[in-house]
Design a protein that fits this description.
This protein is of the alpha/beta class. Helix content is about 55%, strand content about 20%. β2 and β3 form a beta hairpin.
Length: about 300
C-alpha cells in the first residue's frame, strides 16, 4: 500500500505534534511532582491566584505555586508553593499577593530577619491578602474630606495674595534688591580679585617679620639677663643694708644726728665766709694789676 506525498507529510506533522504535546506534559508532570522543597501558605483570599504563578522574594523568582486547596472547616485557602532546591526560608517569613496593573496575581515572600533559624519543608507560612486599591482609596476619602476646608482656605489666601495691589510693588522691590545684590556680588568679586591678594601679601610679610622677631627673641640670653638682674637686686639689697647699718659710713651719715649738725654748721660757716669774702675781698686778696705804687 503506497501513500501519497501529502499523506506522508500530514502523518509526520501529526506525530511531531504528539511528541511535542506529550513531551510538554511529561516535563510539566515532572515539575508538578517535585515536592522536595514545598511550603504551605494559608490565606483568606487568593484574588484569582492560579497554579504555576510566580513566587518572588526580594524581586527574584524563587519558585512557583504548586496547588491551591480550600479548607472548608477553617474557610481558608492553603497554597502549596514549590521553591527551588536548597532555598531556605527563615523563621518569621510571611507571604502576600501582588498584582501588576494588567498582570496576574503573584506570591511575594517577605523573608524573616534571622537567617540562622529556618523553616523545614512542609511547614506553614503566614499569609496576608492583597491590599485592594479601591478599599485603600475609600479609607483615604475621610482624610481628603478633612483636608478640603484647609485647601479652600489656602486657595482663598492665595487668591487674595495674587489680587493684592502691593504684590507688583513687592516684586519691583525684589527686582531692586536683586540688582543691588548683583552689584554687591560684583564688588565682592573685585575685592577678592584685587585687594585680597595684596592683603595676603602684607599678611605674609608681617608673618615673616614676626618669625624674624621670634628668632631674635630666641637668641636673647634671658638666663644671663635674669642672673644679672638678680645680682643687681642683691647689690641693691646690700646697699640698703649699709644705709640702715649705723656702724657704716653711709649709715652714720643717714642716721647720726651729730653728723648732720656738723655738716649744717660747716655749711653755715662756709656761707658766712663767702658773704665776708664778697663784702671785704681786700682782706683775702692782695694784688695790683699795674704793680705796687710808690709812696
Amino acid at each position: 500500500m503506497k501513500f501519497s506525498k501529502e499523506i506522508k507529510i500530514a502523518l509526520v506533522t501529526i506525530v511531531a505534534i504528539l511528541i511535542v504535546y506529550f513531551g510538554i506534559m511529561f516535563l510539566k508532570n515532572i515539575k508538578m511532582s517535585r515536592t522536595n522543597n514545598v511550603y504551605y501558605v494559608e490565606m483568606s483570599d487568593v484574588n484569582g491566584l492560579s497554579p504555576q504563578a510566580e513566587v518572588l522574594a526580594n524581586g527574584m523568582n524563587i519558585g512557583t505555586v504548586k496547588s491551591l486547596t480550600y479548607d472548608a472547616q477553617r474557610q481558608l485557602v492553603v497554597v502549596a508553593i514549590d521553591l527551588i532546591e536548597g532555598y531556605q526560608v527563615p523563621v518569621g517569613t510571611t507571604a502576600t499577593l501582588s498584582k501588576d496593573m494588567l498582570g496576574s496575581p503573584k506570591m511575594r515572600i517577605m523573608l524573616g530577619d534571622n537567617p540562622k533559624q529556618v523553616l523545614q519543608a512542609g511547614d506553614t507560612i503566614s499569609g496576608f491578602p492583597m491590599a485592594d486599591l479601591m478599599a485603600s482609596a475609600s479609607e483615604l476619602v475621610p482624610s481628603f474630606k478633612a483636608m478640603l476646608p484647609k485647601l479652600d482656605s489656602i486657595l482663598t489666601a492665595l487668591n487674595t495674595l495674587t489680587n493684592d495691589p502691593a504684590l507688583p510693588a513687592s516684586l519691583h522691590n525684589l527686582e531692586y534688591v536683586t540688582g543691588n545684590l548683583r552689584t554687591t556680588t560684583d564688588n565682592l568679586n573685585r575685592l577678592l580679585r584685587n585687594d585680597v591678594p595684596q592683603l595676603m601679601a602684607r599678611v605674609n610679610r608681617v608673618g615673616g617679620n614676626l618669625e624674624e622677631t621670634t628668632t631674635k627673641l630666641n637668641q636673647v640670653d634671658f638666663v644671663g639677663m635674669s642672673n644679672r638682674a638678680n645680682q643687681t637686686i642683691d647689690e641693691l639689697y646690700l646697699f640698703t643694708n649699709r644705709l640702715n647699718n649705723e656702724n657704716s659710713t653711709l649709715g652714720r651719715l643717714m642716721n647720726d644726728a651729730s653728723v648732720y649738725n656738723h655738716l649744717d654748721s660747716t655749711m653755715v660757716n662756709a656761707s658766712r665766709l663767702l658773704e665776708d669774702l664778697r663784702t671785704h675781698p681786700k682782706r683775702y686778696v692782695h694784688f695790683s694789676l699795674f704793680g705796687k705804687k710808690e709812696k
